[in-house]
Specification:
It contains 22 helices and 14 strands. The protein has 980 residues and is of the alpha/beta class. Among the domains are: 1-113 and 934-980, 3-Layer(aba) Sandwich (Rossmann fold); 311-358 and 604-666, no CATH class; 430-528. The strands form three sheets. It has a six-stranded antiparallel beta sheet. The protein has a five-stranded parallel beta sheet with strand order 8-12-13-3-14. Helix 11 runs antiparallel to helix 14. The relative contact order is 0.13.
Amino acid sequence: MKFISATINGFGKWVDQSFHFYNDGVNCIYGENESGKSTLHLFILFMLFGLPPKQRNFYRPKTSGTLGGRLTLEAKHTGRFTIERFDGVRNGSALCYTEDGSQHDEEWLAETLQGISSTTYQSIFSFSADDLNDFRNMKEDDLGEVLLGIGLTGSTAIQSVEKMLDNKIGDLFKPYGKKPLINQELDQMALLHKEVRQSATEEKVYQNKNLESDKLSQDIQTLEERVRQLYSERMELERKQQALPVMKQYRELRENLNELPDSIPFPEDGLTRYEKVKNEVLPLRSELSFLTANEKTYENRITILLEELPTEERYKKAAKLVKLKEDYTSFVRERENWQSQLNKLQNRLKMEINQLNIGIGMEDLEEFHLPFHTEKNWNQLKTSSSDLKKESIQLQQEQKELTNQRMYMMNQIGELEDQLLDPHHVSKIKEKLRLSTENELIQRLSMQLTKKKIKWEKEKEKKKKYASIGLWGSIFIALILGITAMLADRSIFYVGTVAMLIIGLLQRVLFHRYLDGMEKIIGTEEMQATNIAIEDEERKEAEHLLASYENTKKDIATLEENLKSIELALVKWNEKNKLNKDAHHTLESKIKQQIDLYPFLLHVEIDYWPELYHNLKHIVTLGHEAGEIKENIRLLKEKKKKIQFELNQFSGSENGEWTEKTIKDQLRELELFTTDYNSNLEKIKQYRQQLHENKEQQHAVKEKLRPYETEIKQLFEVAQVDKEDTYYFKARQLQEKQELEKEKTTLARQLNNFFDDQEEDHSLEWQEEELASRSQQIKKEEIELQKNIEKKRQELANIRAEILQMETSETHSYKLHQYEMKKERVNELAKEWAVLKTAKEMLSETKRNYRDIYLSKVIQQTIYYFGFLTDGRYKDVHPPADGQAFYVVTQDDIHFDVNELSKGTVDQLYISLRFAVSEVMSNEFKLPIIMDDAFIHFDMERAERITEIIKRIGSKQQVLLFTCKHNVREFFENENIIRL
């Protein structure tokens, strides 16, 4: 079968893309990382086998809603056909089209693929770099599952059946389980068997109880007859005399009860529960004793071996000496290396010390110390010195500038004071300007007043004219109204005539008053102007002199303020100068202190101290390194002497010729000694393993004992005791108290028949003394009889209650029936479990047979490919077995576990295995092989070899090789290359 083409409508990053594959040889599909190689690989698997809905959603394109496409293949028995699969169509099922136009479903596709599932295909014909990570952990069962998938197309169903059988077997029975059905039934059957045995014992007890009941009845009758005889005698005594024995007995009971504790803690049905647990514990303790005896046997055997074994101290000493074999051979070479380094280092030290030329020698380095803070101190001293120099220069400049400014200000003030006018002359100029200003103001006011008078005269004439018109108008209206009044003879017109005349006259009077007032106002505003007058030029000159005077005064005031600021700045400068001098003294003190510590600094400028520190630090470091090398050389000499001494000391006691042997021969004999020791240790290890298993069995028995011991502990905690004897003592004590309380209740009931108050003791004392002599014998006998009767009646009542319970109970027959039914149920379940177990074993045997059919062929082909890839360095490959992983054998017969191989070698082994599996199956299934960067960790030589194998396989069946490596692509330049 071969891939012809692929059309992707949408899958991951691929949307509306088509790919055409070459029928023959290797299809090398090359693309950079993130170019979509793995997505194309998964698309082919999706078209062949489909994907679950969740995985389909994961590969749904972001830029298209369609997920699916078409894959065209060609097979011998079907010809060319196309697989069409879309997510939203037929729920993701495939639809196949053949060349004759026929359509086929998913089942036809499965038959065409010869029943191979997705898992089987990826196990045989498809693999990637990610599959290499799980190869180190592959076990025998894992390889068997792969080979089973090769040999059986229905391996998935077999695995499902195997899992189903395991689940059913586990649900039925587990050796140490409690939840499985058979385990539960066995526990219930054991409990029923115990109850059946207990009920059988109760039948014998029933017969004994009947005999005991008859005897007690007869005894009670005899006692009651005697009581009746005494009753006739007791009737002769008074009522209180009859009560005396009861009262005495009641007192005794109360005293006995007072002697007992008020509260006796004890579990309910404590004795029965304790006996039941005790019966369960005894067999387990017996088993534990047996295991303990075996433990002692193993320990004795281990002790014998240990006695025959040399002392561990001697073995450790020998093993320690053997480990020094390689060290000894390297001591001389290492010492020469150290000596060479020391010579070079000393020459370098001499050269660097001479270059410094500060008066120190090699011998000074041993006592020379540069604390960690020295560099910081020297840097601070350098910085402080530089800062103080700059500050001194700055202070000198400030002093010069301030002095110059002060002299300049004083000169300026003197010059301005010389330019000032005489104050008297200034006063005259100001007065003259004031009078001139007043005269000008009066003249302007006079001109304004003249203008107002002219304007007022004009308005006055107008107002007089208007007043005359108003007066004559009023007279004219009054005349008309008078004529009308005379003609009409109406009084109202006379009134109007008089009113108009009054209005006209009143207007005239008011107008003249207004004119008089205005004349007075205008007349008072007349002002007398002075005769003082100043020319404009003279006025401007006076104003200029006055303004110059004021400006000069302001300039003098400003200069005086500036002079004060300069004086203040000089004061501050003096303070700064004092601080600078103090800082100079402090710096000189610190410099002197450093020179006292390091005299060579006297000839070095302080600015070079930090640089000198680094050079000195480097020299000191080199000196320390030289000292360390000397120490190493000394230690190597000591180690060599120590090894020689230890070897002589170790074997000197064995034979006298030991010291004459070489160290190599001595170490060889020590190796033989340690080998024998380890052999004996292995035997001890085996016995200790058996001892460990024995302890685990003891632990299991102790685990079974723990619930019973816990229950016993709980019973003891409730009873507040810590041992068995005390527990039984408390049980008896509780029983005694219960019996006394019961008897006390009975006596109290009897006393109620005689007295209203049971505590009426004093009223009977006289009777007891008086009647003691004549009723003592009767009372004693009566008391004894009463006790015996009550006791036997109680015993009889208890026995009859037990007999009644036994007669009405069918427990034995019911329990026996239940036990037989449970036994039959267990037998049925056991048969079912045996059938399932047999089926499981048959299935496992079938799987082993199929695995064995193909395993030898696969491993043989794997050896061939692996030897070719590794250039013949490995001659054999062994598959996983007995829980171990793959291991290989070199040409030198050295065995390497797969975990001991390099990453590249493991990858070569895995790819050899996959190629072998594919080749073994090529006779039955001619399916294309897909590889996705499977040899990414190979170097150029191995990559070239693997390409030869791939080309050889490609000549037989189609191969799709996905790669992002440029060098891999170059190996297939003559092949079919598809670029993404």
